[in-house]
């Protein structure tokens, strides 16, 4: 599954989805694996109580054959990805998950490019009212915000000003009021955990799941924190659109299996989570890179070459296991 096994890697490490998808589908079809990508694999019937009691041996055998095909398809897909695309699929547990995730991302990128072009090319008709044109610009800007490429009110008004002639009055007032509103905004930050859905995999306290779609490190365990700023409170958006609240930010001290102590800084305390999460983005900002080696993922400092940890692929994704040196916090 390692990205290093690819025969050819784009220089920019960007995935050309349209070309990749055609080649991947053809390859999987030739190998007789496309059906599990297209249709997925049902849950293990032996672990479903209402099915386990009456399932026939031949039915269970068919399911196991599908599961083997799915694992082969998953390995084929992930081994063909660029490093950046592979990181986005680390938590995927099936070939269909990988395909759907990349397809959705490509659709969103296409929509983003289309909206960006609309925003740049939008201009005001000669007889159009200022407020009407402003509404059109804001509508596109709001759609861009939903795709995490938002335009501030200040940028919106700047766009409007650039499209108008000198004959329009009240522009300075509009511009300055929007600028002051943008500069004085004190909205809470919104954190995201878009690559993970709560349940159904069981996670234990010593497990830290690597996530490429999570903006920050997070933990639901108050007792883990050695420091905690309870004044830091903000919403956390999940992949299904629901919102949960974080109730603090602080540091967590852990001990590796080699007995070395590490401090994970700026961890968000999110009581309603069911797992500990390490953000690959946050680690990347600190200079750590990810090295894939079959079913293992090594996090190492790009300059220092110090190893942060070695994650192993488990049911829920790539997981680091740390013994936590518990803090003094015992109640919310």
TrEMBL record:
Transmembrane segments: none annotated. Keywords: Coiled coil. Residues 208-288 form the Retrovirus-related Pol polyprotein from transposon TNT 1-94-like beta-barrel domain. The keyword Coiled coil applies. InterPro entries: PolX-like_BBD. Residues 105-132 form a coiled coil. It holds the Pfam family Retrotran_gag_2. PANTHER family: OS04G0629600 PROTEIN (PTHR35317:SF23). This is (thale cress) hypothetical protein. It comes from Arabidopsis thaliana.
